[in-house]
Design brief:
82 residues; mainly alpha; 84% helix
């Protein structure tokens, strides 16, 4: 197997093609990173909102069932949903 230096490989392959391939690879990596970041952000917001909604639903159920007073409900609601 013949070992070539990078300039020789680029000359054989064509500097233009190498630059196009490098550009396409860079764009592909950027798209993947941006996509993952946006998805992760949506999951975090959805999870926090869902947790808050679940907690409020439980508090309302406890209030309706008589397990807590209106004052306790208001205090806990302010804690959950400032």
């Amino acid at each position: 197997m013949h070992s070539s230096s990078l300039p020789e490989l680029l000359a054989d392959f064509g500097i233009g093609r190498a630059l196009v391939l490098a550009w396409l690879l860079l764009v592909a990596v950027a798209v993947v990173l941006v996509s993952r970041r946006r998805q992760a952000g949506k999951r975090r917001r959805h999870t926090a909102r869902a947790d808050r909604d679940d907690a409020l639903r439980l508090l309302r159920a406890r209030l309706e069932g008589g397990a807590i007073s209106r004052e306790e409900f208001d205090k806990l609601r302010r804690t959950v949903d400032p």
